[in-house]
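Title: Prediction job returns without error message
Component: structure pipeline
Severity: low
Priority: P3
Assignee: unassigned

Description:
Job completed but the reporter wants confirmation the result is attached to the right record. Sequence as submitted:
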Amino acid sequence: MSHSASFIVLRDLTFAYRQGGQDVLRGISLEIPKGTITAILGPNGSGKTTLLNLLLGWLTPRRGSIELAGKPHRGYSRRAMSRLVGLVPQDEHATFDLTVFEYVLLGRAPYLEFLEMPRKSDRELTSRALGSAGLTALRERPVSSLSSGERQLATVARALAQEPQVLLLDEPLSHLDLGNTQRILRIIASLKKGGTTLIFTTHDPNVAASAADLVILLKEGSLIASGPATSVLNPENLSLTYGVEVEVIKVNSRLIIVTPEKLIEGDADARVS
């Protein structure tokens, strides 16, 4: 994957959780342009979340390098990194009984000095983030009282309040019903229009096909393919990634991923051409 205006560059990225242990990621080299949506796609255990944690700076590669906005990863302070990169985790449990507003307001922490109280502008931005996530009516509810889907939306709202240039989302649709799934996808599309670079993980190729400009295919820590979704999501690459026979069908300009036994998404009649 190459682009003249690459915003994120990985070179020979290799990582193991223990010194001398088995590599979880091996020799990953790719480039991601600014203002694009990238899906990291692969089965469980392929290294998707580990790659996000490396991009966040939470993990240190055993070999290779990461560049963000033309600067080596290690050249950023922790504070600068927290302003540059945001995360929507797959599961997060609030340790304090915060209201939804207070929880989302935590997204402004990278912009506050030690013990500094949030400013009026921080609270206004937090209110806008709640509105974007459809949570205004729940702003005074304790986070602990939310459903799993509502909690996921609150985490997205916190990331919106953070205003990062790069937003990482780990399985962002995993707990959501159809309505909230569409809300998240609209938020992702809106952030892209504003110039945010978005990277999300998923095990579902249909989610990648519907939402991503670029796709990274991982299997057991190795890069199978990377590039535009329309070229990467082909039967050969997907069959190699998932170890099963896969068909890719184009329906009204949209790619639908199916297996011979059943349709992963959509109507079975779509297989008739």
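Comment from assignee: result matches the submitted record. The longest strand covers residues 6-15.
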